[in-house]
Amino acid sequence: AMDGTEGAAPAAEGKVGEEEEDDFGYRLFPDRNKKPQSFLVRSLFTFHNRCQLMLRMTLDTNPYAQLLLEAMKQSGCTVFNDRHFSCENCDGCVSGGFDSATSQIVLCQNNIRQQSHMNRVVTHELIHAFDHCRAHVDWFKNVKHLACSEIRAANLSGDCTLMNEIARFKFGLKGHHQTCVRDRAIRSILAVRKVSKETAEKAVDEVFDACFNDLEPFGRIPHSKTDAKRAYRDFQNRDRYNANL
User: Fold this and answer.
1) pTM to 2 decimal places
2) Per its record, what are the GO molecular function terms (predicted)?
3) Catalytic (active-site) positions
4) At 88, which helix (H) or strand (E)?
């Protein structure tokens, strides 16, 4: 998405006349005579490139993301990669966000290092985008709306699958998935809103059952890629079935 033209060209103006004859074809390699970019700029650009490549990979191959993209298209909200995703540098340790004002998903290129992490962040944020598309979510004034979408995002994105949790050393298995979803939803609310922990907990607990059991568009809790693939297949079949009615 970066075209690198900002501020590059005008510097050469003015002395075109005398340089024309001994240009030696250098104009074909415009970067040759530019000052080398600082290490910082170069490494930020590679962050950006890596983010774009990983995003492309997620959208092309990840069944969680593919199902959500398809579901959004059916709800009348087609997602365009260049318009609805933005790789940016973020503060602190956030990995991504959904900007409801622009319907844009922000991916934190400085904090997403692995493809598996990118898959989860894109899926998590696409669930918010899906909720935004199908329901009139009041993201800012109604903390229960936000809580509901955060519960769904934690439940359905793979954030709380057993392997991810074992990696975080939580072994209490009974009710473990619910506990993880609740904790993550509360943490997410506190990260994006200036509300007290009590307010966040109360909002999550009030809507928990309804939102935890809202499995759209997956139809099941996808505990693994295999589950997600199956859900995606079912979704496509359900669609064909409806088309035949």
Assistant:
1) 0.78
2) metal ion binding; metalloendopeptidase activity
3) 125
4) strand 85-88
